[in-house]
């Protein structure tokens, strides 16, 4: 690969990109139930235009681009209002949920260094369903993350969290809701725990921050999950998820300046001058701020509410359809338009069902602990819900007739990866797959339908998987 010796005409380049894109996941058909947050084409065009106006501004210095700063402050203010932040509530936009969580953990660690100087390595206590961004934050910033087993309903077990608190604990964290199951943790009870032990408390509303307010307005009664709980000291909510902004946009919020100030990094000795940033990035896009601001203005409260109403209606329909299948069960009680389902006692194997659905063209999100299929209902999924339910029914019948399917294809590989106790081996293999994707022998050029066949597992994986399943692992 080399930079072309001669430049090429724009039309040529765009045509090549368009052709390449046709091999990507066809989410607009509705057959994808994950990752692609999209309202409609009009909103999409607005985001593009808003982003385009600022795409080349380097927003590293907020004092240079006052119009971006104004938009960022307005976005943060609107989100603080949505999440019932008090007058003192402050924060910033970030590049996504992970950065919001990294910054919140970092700010809490720095706060603890100042205010609790006696502690050793600082610790976080969270339910086991917490997003891996917290593992990443603990790993990057030298904290210990202690994970408490959750209840069978997949809600955080507050007593199990309490047992993990020790003299080094600085932060409790919980989800509103968790991504894997769409289940809301008991935020008020965890808030009481934080208060009793004098701890900071972060609520991760990355996926729920722009859905739960509308779900509540639609009449669903939920326990308080945001700054209404007085012990909540920080929150994250993603604009690039149900905020329907462009990718690369989230908000991190703090109840008090005393916590927020720890997020701001200042270097007084850099030869390039005094260097300070409020977030992790150096050079920073202004476009994401502009698109998020424009998105909020365009949808308005009524637009978000209407979209939430449509997605929740679709969700209720798909949930009822899945519940009508005697072999299936929904995991826990999802509080918004996302859920995970599995088969009772894994009969038939849920990963075999996933393989069948994938062969029918559905993009399937497989999960573990327990093995399950995850889906989120977006507006573009609404027209295909009946088709999906019909294919799920056919998949169950097929998997029952073909019990050996659990030992074949992707089912064997995912099954084994979920069940095998040798987690170090799984980690090494996943890392290897990643390196291969970025390496010269990368298979990413192949059309998606062919790509998944590169995951063909050896036969022994199937046998071992079935054995572990039989042993109830
Ligand atoms: C609950 C939750 N927290 C954090 C994140 C991380 O967000 P991002 O992928 O934007 O970094 C996600 C992403 O799905 C999430 O669902």
Task: Describe it.
It is built from 16 helices and 13 strands. By secondary structure, the chain is an alpha/beta fold. It folds into two domains: 50-296, Aspartate Aminotransferase, domain 2; 347-470, Aspartate Aminotransferase, domain 1 (Alpha-Beta Complex), CATH 3.90.1150. It has a seven-stranded mixed β-sheet, sandwiched between helices. Strands 10-11-13-12 form a four-stranded antiparallel β-sheet. A two-stranded antiparallel ribbon has the order 8-9. Helix 11 (350-359) packs across helix 12 and helix 13 crosses helix 16. The radius of gyration is 23 Å and the shape is globular. The model is unreliable at 447-455 (pLDDT under 50).
Specify the CATH architecture of the largest domain: 3-Layer(aba) Sandwich
Q: How confident overall, as mean pLDDT?
A: 92
What ligand molecules are bound, each kind once?
Answer: pyridoxal-5'-phosphate
| Classification by helices and strands | alpha/beta
Shape label: globular
Q: How many H/I helices?
A: 16
The largest sheet, given as strand count, sense and whether it forms a barrel, is: 7 strands, mixed
| C-alpha Rg (nearest Å) | 23 Å
